[in-house]
Amino acid sequence: MSRAETTSGPASGILGLADVQSQALVEDSADVVIIGSGAAGATAARVLTDAGLDVILVEEGAHLPTAKLRSDAYSSFKHLWRDMGFQVAEGRAFTPVLQGRAVGGTTVVNGAIIHRLPEPIYDLWAAEHAVDKSFSYRQLTDVFDQLDRELSVGPAPDAVFGVNNQLMQLGVEGIGARGNRIRRNVKDCQGSAHCNQGCPTGRKQSMDVSYVPQALARGARLYAQCRAETLHSKSGRVSGVRGRFLDPVTKQKGPRFSFHARRAVVLCASAIQTPQLLQANGFGRASQLVGERLQCHPGTGVVGVFDNPVKLSFGATQGFETTHFWHERMKFESVAMPLEFAAARLPGIGPELMHELESFNHLAIWGVQVRAQAFGSVHKNLFGSTKIQYDMLDSDIEILKLGVQRLIRMMFAAGAKQVLPGVHGLPDRIDSADEAERLFSLPNDPRLFHCIAAHLFGTAKMGLSKYSSVVDLNCQVHDAPGLYVFDSSVFPTNMGVNPQHSICAVSWLMSERLATRKH
Ligand SMILES: Cc1cc2nc3c(=O)[nH]c(=O)nc-3n(C[C@H](O)[C@H](O)[C@H](O)COP(=O)(O)OP(=O)(O)OC[C@H]3O[C@@H](n4cnc5c(N)ncnc54)[C@H](O)[C@@H]3O)c2cc1C
Ligand code: SF4
Questions:
Q1: How far apart are CA 354 and CA 343, in angstroms?
Q2: Ligand 2 pocket: which residues have CB below 6 Å?
Q3: Distance from C-alpha of 109 to C-alpha of 320, rounded to nearest angstrom
Q4: CA-498 nearest atom, ligand 1
């Protein structure tokens, strides 16, 4: 089913606030109730329904079919992003923690970059967290192959490669590194460079156009604008979910709901929301690790000004990357964005900013993300809101500096006439790569950089013992029969590459196991 054919309403299998408004209480039951319809949740629904199980998906965000998507940044932030993109981690700097909140989760607004879990990371997880006792790298690889086939994964094609991506290839090769076209989960990409606002043509195989409709076709029900709050138990077993229908944009309240799970409740609400559900319901306490060990890939971008038009508005949003320096804990990617997104990254205000924006057609943007070693945490504050704490270590900032310097070198190697490094302490514009050397004399202060965090891990980690991990090797919460976590909360560490494929693969393997497990 294409995205355009997926609609809300009882016939579609998706019920939102408007469909249930007249009811006092919405009740339903299924073998498995899954919270969250993003990478982990939709994959679990696809696998569990394929195995013949009855599934309910609970999703806090709304369902936006392609026809309802608006291409401007404001509408996309309002309807598809959590807290309009304003969720932040507090530390020495405030770091935006970006997440989607919609049917399809963050995959609706992500860059469609597909990577497999690097084998050295698997080996680390095996050596230090016993993950090899749960699944082998061979098993993961088989699932990756199947995901590739089902989600149309392939390199960005010539027709939509676009100048931003071409220039990055020149830049990477110009500094003597190797790079590659990004493998993306897109079918017949139109090169609209809009992946982060929701694909306007339904070509990106985000979960809302792939595994969600597949699960619905096999009988799953999806409740949208439906926020899970409490997990209830019966005879010592987690047996259901309660909460309320709520429009996440207008905050209009709808009826309460109670969904009974005959076999399991699976948390797939992301590494930020899953630990909060565990904390609110008092699960996984023995380890004292729920909401701790938060890791991410802090990242920032550099802008290059070129004589010839770059036209960021055309091409695969993210089409070229290099993992050449992965062992140094950094990865580089091209990234296109609309004028309104770019405006936030350009120097100056008023007439000066207007002048910058006039040159928009001549700008290239590339980013670096760091496999940071810092750990943060997720809790609720006194007012019940999400409180994320995160601070890069000095060693992480040193890697970020080297990454920014390499981006600047790549820009000049590709022929940029000027570079806007976006680092406080450097000039707004620099004319040569040599000027970037000043980066290394700046203090290790995260406030000097415009970092964001979009890849999130570790807040309910997997392991053998209930004293050193939150979930066991089947991803069942220790001491909470019937309650599982299949999202990247269970990953023991970050991984240095984009995580969607690994999240889908782990959720896939755990869902297969859940489907066949005796209860
Ligand atoms: C801008 C951006 C670009 C990215 N680009 C890429 C990329 O190109 N490649 C890549 O691999 N990764 C990318 N990522 C990261 C990737 O998309 C995420 O890591 C992945 O989607 C996370 O999967 P998940 O299932 O854990 O959570 P999500 O996909 O975020 O899904 C969780 C869902 O749970 C819902 N939820 C949360 N709490 C509740 C509750 N209490 N009740 C009901 N529902 C709830 C949320 O609304 C959300 O829809 C990007 C991320 C961002 C922000
Ligand atoms: S570049 Fe445009 S057409 Fe291609 S997947 Fe992204 S949003 Fe869709």
A1: 9
A2: 112, 186, 189-195, 199, 201, 203-204, 316-317
A3: 18
A4: 11
- Cα(519)–Cα(510) distance, integer angstroms: 15
**Strand 299-305 with 363-370, pairing:** antiparallel
Report the length, in residues, of the chain.
519
pLDDT per position as a tens digit, 455-472 = 999 999 999 999 999 999
Q: Which two tokens stand for residue 376?
A: 């943060």
**CATH pick for 3-152+196-294+454-516 out of 3.40.50.300, 3.40.50.200, 3.40.50.1470, 3.50.50.60:** 3.50.50.60
Minimal-distance CA residue to ligand 1 atom 15: 455
For residue 160, the ligand closest to its alpha carbon is 2
189 lines ligand 1 (CB under 6 A): no
Spatial CA neighbour of 59 closest among 44, 74, 75: 44
User: Which residues lie across from 424 on neighbouring strands?
Assistant: 426
Q: Which residues pair with 332 in a beta bridge?
A: 322, 368
Q: Which amino acid is at 226?
A: C
Distances 230 to 35, 240, 283, 284, 298 between C-alpha atoms, Å: 11, 8, 11, 15, 32
Which atom of ligand 1 has the smallest separation from the CA of 102? Answer: 49
The CA 406 to ligand 1 mean position distance, Å, reads 29
Q: Closest ligand 1 atom, CA of 41?
A: 25
Instruction: Quote the pLDDT of residue 66.
Output: 86
Kindly report the pTM of this predicted structure. 0.96
Ligand nearest to the CA of 266: 1
pLDDT for 21-42, tens place per residue? 999 999 999 999 999 999 999 9
Sign of CA dihedral 41, 44, 46, 48: negative
Q: Is the CB of 64 under 6 A from ligand 1?
A: no
Which residues does 92 contact at the CB level (< 8 Å), separation at least 6?
391, 445, 446, 447
Give the per-residue pLDDT at 75: 86
Q: Is the CB of residue 197 below 6 angstroms from any atom belonging to ligand 1?
A: no
For residue 5, is pLDDT > 60? no
Kindly state if the Cβ of 504 falls inside 6 Å of ligand 1: no
Q: Please give the distance, rounded to the nearest whole angstrom, from the Cα atom of residue 505 to the centre of ligand 2.
A: 23
CATH architecture of 154-186+299-371+393-448: 2-Layer Sandwich (3.30)
